[in-house]
Model the fold of this input.
Amino acid sequence: MGQKKKKSMILLFAVLVVLVAAYFILQSWNKSQDKKEQAKEEAENIYITDIDTITDIKYNIGSGDMEFTKEDGTWYVTADKDFPLAQSYPEQMADTFKKLKAERELKDGDSLEDYGLTEPVYTVSLTDGEGGETTLYYGNAAGDDYYVTVGDEGKVYTVSSTTISDLQYSLEDMAQLDTYPNIGSGNLKKEVITQGGQTTTYDSENDDDAQNIAAVAGGLGAVTLSKAADYSVEDKDLAGFGLDEGSRTTVEAVYTSDDKEKTLTLYIGGTDDSGNRYVMMNDSRIVYLISEEICKNILNEE
Done:
């Protein structure tokens, strides 16, 4: 290779090194600028709450008082600790309100009455880990926002209306329902029905039960746990649903899942005013409503 060509290669390599270095320097500078811009924006934000840990959330958005309490890392409905509360709902509420951002703070504004804050539309009370309480009052709507004041400090802010969207669920919406297994004729091994002291067994190993297994598997596979009559029934109330030990029908379904044999226990009780049957499963305290037709299929009744 000639000297001239070597010098050209060296020059090109040097230029490449410079360009690569410049690229990384520019990237670093851009990241630094982004961080500065983010820090500036954060410094300009107005937060009307700053709560490290929320242990109690109480609110009323026009449909009655709701309250949730956190104990040992778990959220409960304060008035009914046995209610099967899906943790994602209160966790989202706590995440929203522990550091609530205001859209703006009103300076030299009108009286609280003019913003609907003397008779608030919504009230949200938050208790921290040390027992301190912060109360937010929501007044009139202001476009996509609400006027809000905190406690008795008198300052008026606007906050996004989305901040109360997490509060608009009913308790029924927030219930953590049981997970029902996938059962069909392909994985149902056996069903044992006990009713009034009498036991009926359908076994997939018995060729004579093939039609019966298909029928009851169709019923078991059609079950949907979506409607509940009681979310935390007490033993003393089971008779009212026909689910006390002396009245209910017990169904034990042995099935396979992931190559493992498992057992589902269903308790079938009486009917409601619409003709649906009351049903419980395994050790759950939730009373579900399942159609009479599905229950008849599970029990292999005409």
